[in-house]
Amino acid sequence: MGSGSISFVERNKSRLEFVESDGYSAIGSIYPGKLFVMDNGPGWGFSVGVEYPSVAVSQSQIAGTYKMLTITTHAGVSAGYFSVPASGKDVVFYEKYNDGTFYESSQEGTTINSFERISSLNNIFKVVLTIDEDGTPWQTSAYLVLLPNEMMIYFSTDPDGSIGGYGLALKVD
């Protein structure tokens, strides 16, 4: 990666443009003091920066319902919700994929094993669950990066540890 410059977009001061010395440019949006999202260009994904709280966020601070949009490596796009409890591990979720199939926490064979904040990080929680499909159980993890009381960015892993999906969820209550 080379050097470059960052400047506000003249017609919209909530957007930034990053221009590298080789001519590559990317546009990002700012939610002042909270969030930065940049489109890295076709096929290159996006970059996100979230305010890092100075003290650890508690589970009760993030409790509530979040509406989500997910991109997966195995089933395309899904939409749904997370419901995070004020305590305990009983995270509830539902998502419907663009092919019409759905996946939810109450399905037979789905077990939430744990839900807790990663102790070395103030705003990242980890959900570990086991899914038993057709008698073959496998374990997956989801990592929730939170901007308390507003939104979360999350990603989940496949059994081999690779990224299985990622998305964005906004808090609705």
For the record, give the distance between the C-alpha atoms at the N and C termini, rounded to a whole number.
Answer: 41 Å
* Spatial extent as radius of gyration: 18 Å
The helix tally amounts to: 1
**Tally of domains:** 2
What proportion of the residues is helical, as a percent range? under 10%
Shape: globular
CATH superfamily of the largest domain: Quinohemoprotein amine dehydrogenase alpha subunit, domain 2
Structural class designation: mainly beta
Spatially, the strands of the biggest sheet line up as 9-8-7-6-14-13-12-11-10
Note the run of SSEs as H and E.
EEEEEHEEEEEEEEE
Low-confidence stretches: none
Share of β-strand residues = over 45%
What is the averaged pLDDT score? 87
Describe the protein in words.
- The protein is mostly beta strands and 173 residues long.
- It folds into two domains: 47 residues, no CATH class; 113 residues, Quinohemoprotein amine dehydrogenase alpha subunit, domain 2 (Lipocalin, Beta Barrel), CATH 2.40.128.
- 2% of the residues lie in helices and 61% in strands.
- Strands 9-8-7-6-14-13-12-11-10 form a nine-stranded antiparallel β-sheet, with no helix packed on it. Strands 1-2-3-4-5 form a five-stranded antiparallel β-sheet, with no helix packed on it.
- A hairpin with a 4-residue loop joins strand 2 and strand 3.
- The radius of gyration is 18 Å and the shape is globular.
